[in-house]
Write a structure and sequence with these properties.
The protein is an alpha/beta fold. It folds into three domains: 158 residues, Adenylosuccinate Synthetase, subunit A, domain 1 (Adenylosuccinate Synthetase, Chain A, domain 1, 3-Layer(aba) Sandwich); 94 residues, Adenylosuccinate Synthetase, subunit A, domain 2, CATH 1.10.300.10; 158 residues, Adenylosuccinate Synthetase, Chain A, domain 3 (Alpha-Beta Complex), CATH 3.90.170.10. It is 32% helix and 20% strand. It has a ten-stranded mixed β-sheet with strand order 9-7-5-2-10-1-11-15-19-20, sandwiched between helices. Strands 14, 16, 17 and 18 form a four-stranded mixed β-sheet that branches. A two-stranded antiparallel ribbon has the order 3-4. A hairpin with a 2-residue loop joins strand 16 and strand 17. Helix 3 crosses helix 4. The chain is globular and about 65 Å long. The N and C termini lie close together (7 Å). Bound molecules: guanosine-5'-diphosphate, 6-O-phosphoryl inosine monophosphate (IMO) and magnesium ion (MG). The site of guanosine-5'-diphosphate has 23 residues, from helix 1 and strand 3.
């Protein structure tokens, strides 16, 4: 019985959906704690293949209560579509609840995200255009609208009117586009409110009840550590924290209540959107990884930038998340590689850096220092035991553990729930 956080260790898309779907088999509750529908978590299990943007990846187990926590920004239209999609496949969404404190993505958030990206032009961040920056900006500016507001129509109307008045001034004066209609948004969101009302509650007490009665809780992160607004490659980051620490705030727990923090890492690196990525391969190796691993954004379909594993960034991620162990995914993608490189340091002008720089402009200039390891010439997708993995694959993992100072608990050798090999695995649920 424990509280386990599962977080992305790199720039997102590490395979968090797969790992949560796997671990949720023995959990009682899964709580998404940050981000919004910028996330795309792929799950491949006996029900089929699904991309979840908001609903926790534990939804496939009838006994698991799923919570969209207060730290998540919810686009109600996306949530309702996602629920319908699951229901069409026979998956019960009756145990899904959303926090009354979760902020709502409004039509002006997605519009402003798009307009800002266009305005930045060459300096664009490459956001998912889902309204994430604007909704979290409104949250901290104290002008946001929360899920609970939908339960009181008069209050909702007042808040919407106040917010929209200013948004329309910005839209018409700064961006020179048409204003949005109060009536249209109000009617549409009242309809969403009616549909979502049975799900909206004070989930903090639901989570508290689960923890105090000794139930097993998974905290599902979104994005990855290097997209954190504080520690990531600012300003090329997202707008809510993907770190384990945010698991407390985004679910309503205290720091001492998280028992274990599992970081999900790919065996290589990928990134979607703009910003520095020292190990990016703009050559046939990078293209080969992208095609073999189908590295196209689960949310936007954009091609992901691919490159060798960056252990400098990885070590930083282990530290800022306080990771207990790692789930290493996509090891199968390296099948047949004659050799594999790992970045162990950066060269910056005449210096050798072994810690992750805070300045994106510095990182942009960093040249990776590589160590080369032997590859393996067999396919590992069907392997289920650590001892049966090729020696070179085991050596690669052992080197990553040394470089990251963190044990690898599990290794994933394919997208399916079954394609998993325990390494130094201690079940969190015993
Ligand atoms: P998330 O955002 O961290 O949940 O990751 P995504 O779902 O965006 O991207 C991970 C992609 O890799 C998905 O298409 C998964 O089905 C797939 N995947 C997950 N683990 C593995 C693995 O070990 N090997 C391979 N080949 N694919 C994997
Ligand atoms: P999951 O949970 C990968 C990236 C965007 C962009 C930056 C800011 O599936 O790992 P935003 O829309 O958040 O304002 O965009 O962050 N980004 C992700 N990249 N996986 C994600 O989520 C991401 N969510 C946001 O591409 O570079
Ligand atoms: Mg993803």
């Amino acid at each position: 019985m424990a509280v386990i956080a599962v977080v992305g260790g790199q720039w997102g898309d590490e395979g968090k959906g797969k790992v949560v779907d796997l671990l949720a088999e023995r959990a009682d509750m899964v709580v998404r704690f940050s981000g919004g529908d910028n996330a795309g978590h792929t799950v491949v299990n006996p029900y089929g293949e699904f991309t979840l943007h908001l609903i926790p990846s534990g939804i496939f187990y009838p006994r698991v209560t799923c919570i969209i926590g207060n730290g998540v920004a919810i686009n109600p239209a996306v949530l309702l579509t996602e629920m319908q999609e699951l229901q069409k496949h026979g998956i019960d969404t009756g145990r899904l609840f959303i926090s009354d404190r979760a902020h709502l993505i409004m039509p002006y958030h997605t519009l402003l995200d798009e307009l800002e990206e266009e305005r930045r032009s060459k300096g664009a961040i490459g956001t998912t255009r889902k309204g994430i920056g604007p909704v979290f900006a409104d949250k901290v500016a104290r002008v946001g609208i929360r899920a609970g507001d939908l339960l009181d129509k008069d209050m909702f109307r007042n808040r919407l009117r106040a917010a929209l008045e200013f948004k329309n001034t910005v839209l018409t004066k700064a961006y020179e586009v048409s204003p949005l209609s109060l009536e249209e948004i109000y009617d549409q969101y009242c309809r969403y409110g009616q549909q979502l009302a049975p799900l909206i509650r004070d989930t903090t007490s639901t989570v508290r009840e689960a923890v105090t009665t000794g139930h097993s809780v998974l905290l599902e992160g979104a994005q990855g550590a290097l997209l954190d607004p504080d520690f990531g490659t600012y300003p090329y980051v997202t707008s809510s924290s993907p770190l384990a620490g945010a698991g407390c705030i985004g679910a309503g727990l205290g720091p001492r209540e998280i028992d274990r923090v599992m970081g999900v890492f790919k065996a290589y690196n990928s990134r979607v959107g703009a910003g520095p990525m020292p190990t990016e391969l703009k050559d046939e190796v990078g293209n080969f990884i992208r095609e073999k691993a189908r590295e196209y954004g689960a949310t936007t379909g954009r091609p992901r930038r691919c490159g060798w594993f960056d252990a400098v960034a990885g070590r930083f991620s282990v530290q800022i998340n306080g990771l207990s162990d790692i789930a290493l995914t996509h090891l199968d993608i390296y099948d047949g590689f004659p050799s594999i490189k790992v970045c162990t340091a950066y060269r910056f002008n005449d210096e050798v850096l072994t810690s992750f720089p805070s300045d994106a402009a510095v990182l942009e200039e960093c040249q990776p220092v590589y160590e080369e390891l032997d590859g393996w010439q067999q396919s590992i997708g069907e392997t289920r035991e650590f001892d049966r993995l090729p020696t070179e694959a085991r050596d690669y993992m052992s080197r990553l553990e040394d470089l990251l100072s963190c044990p690898i608990g599990l290794v994933s050798v394919g997208p399916d729930r079954k394609q998993i090999v325990p390494v130094k695995w201690i079940s969190p649920w015993e």
